Amino acid sequence: MCYERSLQTGERPGRPPNEGFERERDDSLKTGQTQLTPGGAGRPAGALGTSWRVPALFAALLLAVLSSVFVFDHDAWTPDEPRVIELAHSVMDGPRAIPSLCGEPFLEQPPLYYWTVGLAYRALGRSVGIARMVSSLFGAGTLLATFWFTAWLAGRRAGALAALCLGTSGLFFWTSHRIVVDSALALFVTCSALAGLVGLTAGGRRGRITGVLLAYVAASLAYMTKGVVGIGLSGFAFLAVLAARRDWRGTYLWAAPLVFLAITTPYHWAVYREGGEVALHTLVVVNTLQRSLGDADSVAHARPWFYYLPIFPTGFLPSTLFLAGAVARFVRRRGELAPRRRFAYEVPLYWLALGLLALSVATTKRELYLVPLLPAAAALAGTALDEALFAQEQRWVRPVLRGLALLLAVFCVAFAVAGLGLH
Length: 423
Description:
Blueprint: H1 2-9, H2 19-31, E1 34-35, E2 43-44, H3 53-68, H4 80-93, E3 100-101, E4 104-105, H5 112-124, H6 128-154, H7 156-167, H8 170-175, H9 182-200, H10 205-226, H11 228-245, H12 255-293, H13 308-315, H14 320-333, H15 339-361, H16 374-390, H17 397-422
């Protein structure tokens, strides 16, 4: 990988040789205490160099079980699921660009999620379980993107732990098992963050262009899922990488509007054809700007600016303690961290901070709106957990991992038996 070459040469990705990186590499070569691995900061020589496969397998199996349960076992739950199901039915049976709710045009956001549910209906049949399966698959994609995002920053072992933190968090689990657009939004925002990170840290021009363009594509798909908020949340992740690199070159920002127009113009033109100028104005102006920054009396779900202060730590449980430890470690030891390790902390921390600030300023607030920021929190928690558990090869590490694998096997068998008993 291009990033691996940058680690081996001691260069900050995408930049000329950096004195701090060179000094860190020279010191490590003299002492023999670090191993330079793809996507990870210098590891202590005693670390379990290949043990990422064990936590990765554990995380994959556990998250596969969690993603598949409670999908087909219950009917639609109010208030969101019946509404989304009706919207998905409307794009199957009527106009494709403008869904309808109770016979009225629905223009709160673009209909990419409703289109996806409609396609699943056509392929697999109409049922609540099929619609909920779409959200579960979007959630699984978000877990995979979170794994690779964190792995690129801090190594695959940290990536597996980050995916585990995300998949077991209460808010993410709840959202990925509900028929709501936020599951798809989280996937596209995380994919945009991953592509931007890979592109902006690529050593070659071709890799940089490819990554940045893919980040713009994913951000445009986030817009097609939930409007301008998708672009904003994707943009915060992009800005976080630039701020952590302290280098604002090579972003190819001129291509961003071109990619956005190429993806969204056919949809906007279809809205204009089906609903005229009034429909297009309602979609772009009223339900984009007014719902984000409008008067609290004129929009639904208006909340005070501090609404998310208790909601976010509660929603990220049980990994909130790991996140708090990661932030405390970074604040306390920022000056002592190696440049690459500091970069691994700064990118998700800046992404999370920018996103929380923007969502707190916006007038409309719901706990669901936090879901696209949970991968950033998970990356921080996974990086800190990786350091805490594997900084040195302790005798207890392998027995604990085997014990966790055994518990997972028992857990999976119990779920299978319970499922057979219910059905």
